[in-house]
Amino acid sequence: MTITASDPKLIGLYGSMALIRAFEEEAERQYKAARIGGYCHLSSGQEAATVGTVEALAEEDLLVTGYRCHGFALARGVPAEAVMAELYGRRDGCAHGRGGSMHLLDVSRGYYGGWGIVGGQLPIATGMALSLVRREAPQAVLCELGDGAVNMGAWHESLNLAAVWRLPVVFLVINNLYGMGTSVERASAEPDLFKRAGSYRMTGERVDGDDLEAVIEASSRLLEEARSERRPAVLEAVTYRYRGHSVADAGLAYRTREEIEEHRQVDPLERTRTLLRGHGVSAEEIEAADRDAAATVLRATEFAESNPAPDVDRLATGVYAPGSDAQFERMMPGSPFGERELVFGGGLGR
Ligand SMILES: Cc1ncc(C[n+]2csc(CCOP(=O)(O)OP(=O)(O)O)c2C)c(N)n1
Ligand SMILES: [Mg+2]
User: Fold this and answer.
1) What pLDDT does 339 receive?
2) Residue nearest to ligand 1 atom 10, measured at CA
3) 198: containing domain
4) pLDDT for res 317
5) Which residues of the chain have pLDDT under 70?
6) pTM, entire model
7) Whose CA is nearest to atom 3 of ligand 1?
8) CB atoms within 10 A of CB 248
């Protein structure tokens, strides 16, 4: 897709990128001030890959991601208040304060998480695509993962099934050049990650993940092929994360300050501002989008701070499916599967 000057979406897409950048900076501040618990993985530097791929989703499509997911939730339209409140573990967080940073969720927007186990989201996304086929539903699934997940067994199993069953799923590999502390070059025997799709006779493509237009074009096309032809694909978006693996990591043990600086020189937000200016968008409009982003983040943080903690009585709500009570009634202590007799310890109770 080539964005035209008349496309009103362009400034909106930039606004979404600016929101993610501002949100991540605030999340880092609040995490360091100990207002956010658990883990916190920031995606600063990856905004074009995030916003571009989410833009390519149809409203009814389904999105599944790994744990570096604040940007994906925001791009998908989850209100910044609900995302920040989730980081704070508060009642009105998008996962009701139970998930935290890695487990954002908004099923009403087709966003099925936010998964903390590396590669854990792949079989889930593949199963969701199978379910779409079984129900003859026209949507596709976009499954985001990191470059570190492509050496997990779940990757191979999921790609194989997606290919043999022709499932409508696009596996989006966000290649930010590093896993937790190891480069793709050191960890992957085939560092051209998109080529791995060929092992499953699946389309594999690489795109400059910092080029918003290129990301939208590639992901729109592959998602459309998934929807209309049930053709699964791998899209590798090459980008860079500016901050450490998590806020707790300075990110300097496995790469140099100079390397980070080099990547900051080709910043995706700056590249998108250049694109906007080329389309005749004024400096004032761009500044207004930046101001809006900052104001939204401020509101989100105030909301999270004043939002109450979840009610302890509701700790198990949503954990078990409706109708599970009968199962609990059958249970006996020490016999979680409902068995009436205690069977361990050499047949106790017989
Ligand atoms: C199964 C499993 N092993 C290890 C971890 C710890 N871990 C969390 S993130 C990560 C690195 C993943 O890197 P990548 O897939 O490139 O994603 P990125 O962090 O770059 O977004 C590791 C090893 C985990 N969460 N799950
Ligand atoms: Mg990575």
Assistant:
1) 58
2) 180
3) 9-310
4) 79
5) 1-7, 327-350
6) 0.92
7) 118
8) 11
